[in-house]
C-alpha cells in the first residue's frame, strides 16, 4: 500500500477508500491483460475477464475474513484476488503453471484456495450457489460464526439450484450471502429476453430471504450492503440476497463477436466506472491528491507486472502430477 | 443412390443436417443456450447457424441457463408429440438434466407399457484436447450407453455427423448425440445420405489387428496404423459410430480375420464401453483369438488444464502403437 491508512481515510463504516481503489485497480489491470494472453496462446480454453465489475468482489470481500468461505463462478479471478489470493499464483494457475494454486490442474475456471476459504471458481453455471449453501451449513454445524458467499451472474439465476438454495438457507437460517452480479448478459443472452420479471431481488424475497438491490458500480454501496448481510449471517439471522447492478466491459470470453450489444451501451456503462468514481470521490473529499492517485495506479501496475513475471517464469507442471490426487489412497 | 460428395467441416455438416431435417419435418423444434446470438449467430460451435433466420424463433429457441428444465421439458415435449432437439453447450452440463434424461425420457416407453414414443435428441459435445479443463472436457458416453431406453451416437466424421444426426432426429427413442469439440473443424466428404443407427464403419482395412475406436481416437488410431504398417502390422479400424444400438457383428467378422482386438476410447478406461466390446468379442470369438483382447482409455483422472497434463491422460497415437504391438505380441513395452 502506498498510502497510510488513518481514521480520516476510512469511508463510512466498512471501507478503506485508498486500499479499495488499489485493489480494484489491480484487478482491472490483471483482468485487462487476459485477452492478450489468450491471443498469445498462453491461456488455453476459456477465460472470462471481469473488467468493469471490480466493485462487487472488492465491496463484498471487505466484510469477509479468511475463515469465511467463497464459492465463485466462471468469471471468478476478482473474487479470488479480493479474498486475498496472490496475483502471481492466481495467474500462474490461469497459465497452467506449477506455481498456480492448483498446480496447473485447474486453470481459470477451477481456482480453489483452501486456506483463503475459496471453494473454487467454477465451470458449471450455478454450481457455486449450492456449494456456498453447504459451506454455510458447515459453519452452522461447527458452531462458528463464519459465513459463506456465493457469487453468480444474472444468467445463473435461471438455474433451479438458486430456488432450492434460497429455500433451504431461509428455513435453516444459514449464514450465506447470495451475491448476484447482474451484468445484464449471460454470454450472448440479454437479461430482458431471459427473464419475465427483471427485478431479480423479488426472487429472494419470495423465499423469505432478505433481499437488496445495490449499485454494483459503487464499491461503498456494495460494501455497506455486504457488511449488513454479513452481520446478519454471523449473528444467526440467516441468508441475504444482494443483487448488484453491474456490467462487463470486455466480451464474455476471448473470441466473442459481441453481436448482442452495441458499442454505445458499453461506453455508457463506462460513464459509471467504479474505479473512476471512487478516485473522484477520494480526490473531491481530499483524502487523496493527484500524486497519491497516480501512485496507487502505478502500484497496481507494478503488482500485476510482477505477477506476470512470476507466472510466466513458473515452469509447467511435471507430467506425473496428471495422475495424482484423484482420490485419497487407502491401499 | 450416390449423390456427389461435398467437402464440409463437421460443424457445417451438422448444420446442414439440422437445416435439411427441419425443412423436411416442419414440426421439429430445437432449443438451447446462445443458439442464435453467439458468434455469427449460431451457438457456441456454430451448429445452429442461420436456423432462426430460416425457421423462425418459434422453432429455434434461445433459452435461459436451465439445463435441468431444458432436458426434462425436451422429454415432455417429445412425449407430447413434438420432435425436439435440445442443444447443451457442453456434455458436462447434461449432468444437470440427468433426471429428465435417465429417469424420465429413457423410461417413458417401457414404464407406460409402450404407449409413448419420445423423439428427443440431446445434442452436445464431449471430449478433451483444447484446454477446457475438468468440467468442459469429459467423455461421458458410457454413462448413457448404460441406460436402457437411450440411444447414444458418437460421430467422428463429417459424413457420419450428417447422416447420423438426421437418423437420430427421426428416431422414436430418446437419443444422446455427442459431438467432439476438437473435431468440429475437421473436413471430409459428405454424401448427405442417412446412416442408420447401429451400423459400424470400417475406417481402414487390414489383416493383423482390429482396432475399435470412435471420434478423436479413430483419428489417432489411423495415425498409429501408419506407424504400425511400417513395422509390418496391418491394422483394421472399426468406428462403431453409435454405442447403442451397437454393431458387434462388424467387429466379430473383423476379429475373425485379424484374430486380435484392441479397443480405444477417450472415456475413462475403467468401466468404460471398451470392456463391453472386449467381453462380447471374447464370448463370441474365443476360439478365433490369438491373444487376449486389450482396451485403452483415459486415465482414471479428471481432465487437467495444463497442456502436457491433458495430453498425458488421454491415449496418444504413440500409446496406441505401443498397445497395438503388445496386443499382437510383438512388443512388451506398455504405457498407461
Ligand atoms: C451449467 C452451465 N451451463 C452453461 C454454461 C456455459 N456458460 C458459461 S458462462 C455462461 C453465461 C453465464 O452468465 P451469468 O451467470 O450472467 O454470468 P456472466 O458470464 O455474465 O458473468 C454460460 C451460458 C456453463 N458453463 N455451465
Ligand atoms: Mg451475466
| Number of individual domains of chain B | 2
What is CATH's topology name of the largest domain in chain B?
Rossmann fold
The overall pLDDT average of chain A reads 95
Q: β content of chain B, as a range?
A: 15-25%
The CATH topology label of chain A is Rossmann fold
First CA to last CA of chain A: what distance? 49 Å
User: How many domains would you count in the coordinates of chain A?
Assistant: 1
What report would you give on this structure?
The complex is a heterodimer of chains A (331) and B (336). Chain A is an alpha/beta fold and 331 residues long. Chain A has a single domain, classed as 3-Layer(aba) Sandwich (Rossmann fold). Helices cover 43% and strands 11% of the residues of chain A. Chain A has 13 helices and nine strands. In chain A, a hairpin with a 2-residue loop joins strand 6 and strand 7. In chain A, helix 1 packs across helix 13 and helix 5 crosses helix 13. Chain A is globular. The N terminus of chain A is likely disordered. The model of chain B has no long low-confidence stretch (mean pLDDT 96). Chain B is 36% helix and 19% strand. The termini of chain B are far apart. A seven-stranded mixed sheet of chain B has the order 3-2-4-5-7-6-12. Chain B has a five-stranded mixed sheet with strand order 9-11-10-13-14, with helices on both faces. A two-stranded antiparallel sheet of chain B has the order 1-8. Chain B folds into two domains: 185 residues, Thiamin diphosphate (ThDP)-binding fold, Pyr/PP domains (Rossmann fold, 3-Layer(aba) Sandwich); 127 residues, Rossmann fold (3-Layer(aba) Sandwich), CATH 3.40.50. Chain B has twelve helices and 14 strands. Chain B has 336 residues and is an alpha/beta fold. Classes of the chains: A alpha/beta (331), B alpha/beta (336). The interface between A and B is large, with 39 and 39 residues. The complex binds thiamine diphosphate (TPP) and magnesium ion. Magnesium ion binds next to strand 6 of chain A.
Amino acid at each position: 500500500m502506498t498510502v497510510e491508512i488513518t481514521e480520516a481515510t476510512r469511508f463510512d463504516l466498512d471501507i478503506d477508500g485508498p486500499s479499495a481503489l488499489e485493489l480494484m485497480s489491480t484487478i482491472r489491470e490483471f483482468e485487462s491483460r487476459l485477452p492478450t494472453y489468450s491471443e498469445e496462446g498462453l491461456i488455453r480454453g476459456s477465460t472470462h475477464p471481469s473488467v468493469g465489475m471490480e466493485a462487487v468482489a472488492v465491496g463484498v470481500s471487505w466484510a469477509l475474513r479468511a475463515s469465511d468461505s467463497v464459492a465463485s463462478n466462471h468469471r471468478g479471478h476478482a473474487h479470488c484476488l479480493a479474498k486475498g489470493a496472490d496475483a502471481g499464483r492466481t495467474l500462474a494457475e490461469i497459465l497452467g503453471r506449477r506455481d498456480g494454486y492448483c498446480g496447473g490442474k485447474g486453470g481459470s475456471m477451477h481456482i480453489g484456495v483452501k486456506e483463503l476459504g475459496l471453494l473454487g471458481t467454477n465451470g458449471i453455471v450455478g454450481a457455486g450457489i449450492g456449494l456456498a449453501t453447504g459451506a454455510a451449513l458447515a459453519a452452522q454445524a461447527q458452531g462458528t460464526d463464519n459465513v459463506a458467499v456465493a457469487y453468480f451472474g444474472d444468467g445463473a439465476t435461471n438455474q433451479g439450484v438458486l430456488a432450492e438454495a434460497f429455500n433451504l438457507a431461509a428455513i435453516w437460517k444459514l449464514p450465506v450471502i447470495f451475491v448476484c452480479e447482474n451484468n445484464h448478459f449471460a454470454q450472448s443472452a440479454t437479461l430482458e429476453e431471459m427473464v419475465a420479471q427483471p427485478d431479480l431481488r423479488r426472487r429472494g424475497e419470495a423465499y423469505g430471504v432478505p433481499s437488496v438491490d445495490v449499485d454494483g458500480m459503487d464499491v461503498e454501496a456494495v460494501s455497506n450492503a455486504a457488511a449488513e448481510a454479513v452481520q446478519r449471517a454471523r449473528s444467526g439471522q440467516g441468508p441475504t440476497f444482494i443483487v448488484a447492478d453491474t456490467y462487463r466491459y470486455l466480451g464474455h470470453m476471448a473470441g466473442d463477436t459481441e453481436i448482442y450489444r452495441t458499442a454505445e451501451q458499453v461506453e455508457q456503462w463506462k460513464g459509471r466506472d467504479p474505479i473512476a468514481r471512487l478516485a473522484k470521490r477520494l480526490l473531491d473529499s481530499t483524502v487523496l491528491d493527484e500524486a497519491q492517485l497516480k501512485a496507487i495506479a502505478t502500484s497496481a501496475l507494478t503488482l500485476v507486472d510482477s505477477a506476470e513475471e512470476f507466472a510466466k517464469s513458473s515452469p509447467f507442471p511435471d507430467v506425473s502430477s496428471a495422475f495424482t490426487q484423484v482420490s485419497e489412497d487407502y491401499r | 443412390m450416390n449423390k456427389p460428395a461435398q467437402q464440409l467441416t463437421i460443424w457445417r455438416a451438422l448444420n446442414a443436417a439440422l437445416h435439411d431435417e427441419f425443412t423436411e419435418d416442419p414440426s421439429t423444434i430445437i432449443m438451447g443456450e446462445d443458439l442464435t446470438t453467439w458468434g455469427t449467430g449460431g451457438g457456441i460451435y456454430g451448429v445452429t447457424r442461420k436456423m432462426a433466420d430460416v425457421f423462425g424463433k418459434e422453432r429455434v429457441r434461445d433459452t435461459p441457463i436451465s439445463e435441468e428444465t431444458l432436458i426434462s421439458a425436451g422429454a415432455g415435449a417429445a412425449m407430447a408429440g413434438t420432435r425436439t432437439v435440445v442443444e447443451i453447450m457442453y456434455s458436462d452440463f447434461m449432468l444437470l438434466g440427468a433426471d429428465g434424461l435417465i429417469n424420465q425420457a429413457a423410461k417413458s416407453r417401457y414404464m407406460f407399457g409402450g404407449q409413448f414414443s419420445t423423439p428427443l435428441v440431446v445434442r452436445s459435445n464431449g471430449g478433451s484436447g483444447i484446454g477446457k479443463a475438468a468440467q468442459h472436457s469429459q467423455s461421458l458416453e458410457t454413462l448413457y450407453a448404460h441406460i436402457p431406453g437411450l440411444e447414444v451416437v458418437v460421430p467422428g466424421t463429417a459424413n457420419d455427423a450428417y447422416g447420423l444426426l438426421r437418423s437420430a432426429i427421426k428416431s422414436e427413442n430418446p437419443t444422446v448425440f455427442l459431438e467432439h469439440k476438437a473435431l468440429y473443424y475437421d473436413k471430409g466428404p459428405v454424401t448427405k445420405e442417412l446412416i442408420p443407427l447401429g451400423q459400424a464403419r470400417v475406417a481402414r482395412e487390414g489383416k493383423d489387428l482390429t482396432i475399435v475406436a470412435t471420434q478423436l481416437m479413430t483419428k489417432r488410431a489411423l495415425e498409429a496404423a501408419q506407424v504400425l504398417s511400417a513395422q509390418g502390422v496391418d491394422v483394421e479400424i472399426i468406428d462403431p459410430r453409435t454405442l447403442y444400438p451397437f454393431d458387434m457383428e462388424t467387429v466379430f467378422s473383423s476379429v475373425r480375420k485379424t484374430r486380435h482386438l484392441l479397443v480405444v476410447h477417450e472415456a475413462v478406461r475403467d468401466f468404460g464401453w471398451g470392456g463391453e466390446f472386449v467381453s462380447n468379442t471374447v464370448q463370441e470369438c474365443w476360439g478365433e483369438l490369438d491373444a487376449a483382447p486389450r482396451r485403452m482409455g483415459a486415465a482414471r483422472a479428471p481432465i487437467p488444464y495444463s497442456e502436457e497434463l491433458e495430453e498425458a491422460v488421454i491415449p496418444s497415437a504413440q500409446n496406441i502403437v505401443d498397445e497395438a504391438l503388445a496386443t499382437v505380441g510383438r512388443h512388451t513395452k506398455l504405457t498407461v
